[in-house]
Hints:
By secondary structure, this protein is mostly helical. It has one domain (about 30-170, about 180-350, about 360-400). About 75% of the residues lie in helices and about 0% in strands. The chain has helices at about 1-25, 25-60, 65-80, 85-95, 100-110, 115-125, 130-140, 145-165, 185-200, 205-240, 240-255, 265-270, 275-280, 290-300, 305-315, 320-350, 370-400. The chain is globular, with a radius of gyration of 22 Å.
Amino acid sequence: MFLSKFKTVFLALSVTMMAVSLISFPQESVDASIRGLNMWWEIVFPSLLPFFIVSEMLIGFGVVKFIGVLLEPLMRPLFKVPGVGGFVWAMGMASGYPAGAKLTARLRQEGQLTRIEAERLVSFTNSSNPLFIFGAVSVGFFYHAQLGIILALAHYLGNISVGVIMRFYGKDDEKGNEQSQHKFSIKTALSALHRTRINDNRPIGKLLGDAVMSSIQTLLMIGGFIILFSVINKLLYHLQFTSFFAKIIEVILDVLHLPVMLSIPFISGLFEITLGSQMTSQVQEATLMQQTIITSFILAFSGFSVQAQVASILAQTDIRFQPFFFARVIHGILASCFAFLLWNPVYERFYNTEEPSNALPVSVFAEDSWVLQAYKILVDTGPLITIASLFVYTALYAKKLTGKL
C-alpha cells in the first residue's frame, strides 16, 4: 500500500516538474521538439514504414509461418524460441528498433509464441540497423566509415550473445509446453503456409489496408516518444540533473580508466542514442577506441526513448518489460567488451593506416559508398515519404470511420 502511494506521489511530482520546466525553458523545449520531429520524419518514419507494412503482409499471407517451420531446427536449439523468431530477428536487424518488439507482439497475439518465448525473442531482436550504424554514427558523427565495422561487429555479436544467454530465462515457468523438434521439411513448411493463408480469409485489399493502418499508428506512437524524450533529455540538462548523475558515472569511468569527460555524453545516450552518440564523438579528450566503447554501449542499451516505445508496444500483450530491460543492460556491457576486444585484431590491424584512401580493399564502406549515399537519399526524401504516407493513412482512416473499409 505504501509503495503504491509513493509511486502515485512520485509520478505526480515528476509530471508537475516537467510541466514547470516546459514553462521555464520554452525555447529549449521547442528546439528539442523540433530536433526529435526532424529525426522522426526524415529518418525513422520512411525507413521503418516499408518494413512494417511488408511484415504485416508476410504474416497475413503465411510466409512467416513458412519461414518458422524451416528455421525451427536452428532457432529452437540455439535460442529456445520457435522458428518464426528467425524472421523477427532478421527483420529487426534490417529495419532497426523497435521493429523486433512490434513483430514479437504481433506473433504473440496470433498465438505463435508463448509468453516466455516472446520475452526471450524480444530481448535480442531489437537492434540498430546497419544504415544507422554506418551512415549516421560512423560517417555522420565520427567522419570515419571504417569505424562502422567495429561498431556493427560489437553490436550484433552482443545481440547474439544476449539471445544465447536468454535461452536459459524462464525455464522454471515453462510447464512442459516445449515443442518437439522439427526436421527441415519444405513440404511441411508449404502446408503451414497454405493453412495460415486459408485461416486468414481477408481479401488482399483489406489485408493491405490493415497493414498500412497498423504500421502508421505504431510509427505515430514512436514519433511521440522520440519527441518527448528529446525534450526530457534537454530539460534534465538545464535542470542540472544530467550533471548530478554524471558525477556518479565519472567514478565508474575512472575505475575503467576512461576519460570522465565521457560522462555527460553517456548520460545523454541513456535517454536518446542519437544525441549520446553525437556528443561522444565530440569529446576530444578521449581516444577513438574509448569513444567506440561508450558508443557501443549506447547503441546496445538503445536509450530510454526506444525502451519506452518497446514498453508501449509490449503493453498490448502479456509480454513483460523487465526481461527486455535486463537484456539491454547485458547487451550494452557485452557490446562494449566486444568493441574493446576487437579493436586491436580488427581495427588496428586492417584499418588504422596512414593512407586512408587504401584502408579498405573494397568501397562498400568508403566515405562515398552506396551506404552513405542511401543515407543521404533517405534524409532528402524522408519528409516527402512521411507526408504522403500520412495522407494515405488519413484517407484510409476516414473510409474506416464511414464503414467503407
